[in-house]
Write a structure and sequence with these properties.
Keywords: Endoplasmic reticulum, Hydrolase, Membrane, Protease, Transmembrane, Transmembrane helix. It is found in: Endoplasmic reticulum membrane. Its EC number is 3.4.26.1. The protein is mostly helical. Helix content is 70%, strand content 0%. The protein has 15 helices and no strands. α6 packs across α14, α8 packs antiparallel against α9 and α8 packs across α12. The radius of gyration is 21 Å and the shape is globular. The two termini are 30 Å apart. The N terminus is likely disordered.
């Protein structure tokens, strides 16, 4: 982390158009200190979010309806207060983004329809194989579907978790990290907080002895890797579209689908068409990733405006 004060991480000044020493242009603390403020703010948000899950003392497992309802309350409170952390960060660093705080966090009307539809379509293309697999194996009827929707776990996984996690770990963290690291490194730095935040599941699994210790830690390592990759993807979507709605919908969809059951596909009676679907989905996803997230489709991007004011007009994710 020594790079925070050196060449590895840079703080982009945004107060004046002309090139000046960064600390002077900011009118506040030096670049190294401002980067530490950004990192500490993100760490505080992550700890607050996870800590809110444990303010309620209970001997019940996490999937019990009573536990879910209590956690809804605490998580919604923390998430609602999280923009205040961005506001405090702005005051401490002296950075003026040139746009409203809500717009910077992805709450804006310009380009909202393509921002809601295109990222979700792109994600569904990636999951073409798993969607084919689900359609072949699912025998659910309308009554079963209604039962699932009314279940508290569905509400947690498909509504509350995607909304609050994307708000805290993308909408609040990326505006604080981007002026310090640049957009590219922020895409990969932000998910680390998101991945580490999921380690709290280890304690619950150990507490209720849901598996062997080795299996629990192996599962946690896999979950960290998966959530970090997913977090980088939604951070990319957030930057390229300038909207929060796309990452939230993609998060909800991925929570519903889960990790692709590749091993089950290899043993499926319809293995060949499924494997073609898997390969075609990945290929089309890579082909359409840039066109469907072209910033021109979504209007002016607040994070890119922030970096342009800082003199970093060549940010590759902005074009």
């Amino acid at each position: 982390m020594a790079a925070l004060g050196g060449d590895g991480l840079r703080l982009l000044s945004v107060s004046r158009p002309e090139r000046q020493p960064e600390s002077a242009a900011l009118g506040g603390p030096g670049p190294g200190l401002c980067c530490w403020v950004s990192v500490f703010s993100c760490l505080s948000l992550a700890c607050s979010y996870v800590g809110s899950l444990y303010v309620w003392k209970s001997e019940l497992p996490r999937d019990h309806p009573a536990v879910i309802k209590r956690r809804f309350t605490s998580v919604l409170v923390v998430s609602s207060l999280s923009p205040l952390c961005v506001l405090l960060w702005r005051e401490l660093t002296g950075i003026q983004p040139g746009t409203s705080l809500l717009s910077l966090m992805g709450f804006r009307l310009e380009g909202i329809f393509p921002a809601a539809l295109l990222p979700l379509l792109l994600t569904m293309i990636l999951f073409l194989g798993p969607l084919m697999q689900l359609s072949m194996d699912c025998s659910c009827d309308l009554a079963d579907g209604l039962k699932v929707v009314l279940d508290m776990r569905w509400l947690r996984n498909q509504v509350i978790a995607p909304l609050t996690e994307e708000l805290v770990f993308r909408a609040c963290m990326l505006p604080m990290l981007a002026p310090c690291t640049g957009l590219g490194p922020a895409v990969f730095t932000c998910p680390l907080f998101f991945g580490v935040a999921h380690f709290h599941h280890i304690f619950e699994q150990l507490r209720f002895r849901q598996n062997s210790v080795g299996s629990i830690f192996l599962s946690a390592a896999f979950q960290f890797s998966y959530t970090a990759v997913f977090g980088a993807y939604t951070a990319f979507l957030f930057i390229r579209t300038g909207h929060l709605i796309g990452p939230v919908l993609c998060h909800s969809f991925c929570n519903y689908m889960g990790f692709p059951a590749v091993c089950a596909a290899l043993e499926h009676p319809q293995r060949r068409p499924l494997l073609v679907g898997y390969a075609l989905g990945v290929g089309l996803f890579l082909l359409l990733l840039q066109p469907l997230t072209d910033p021109k489709l979504y209007g002016s991007l607040p994070l890119c405006v922030l970096l342009e004011r800082a003199g970093d007009s060549e940010a590759p994710l902005c074009s």
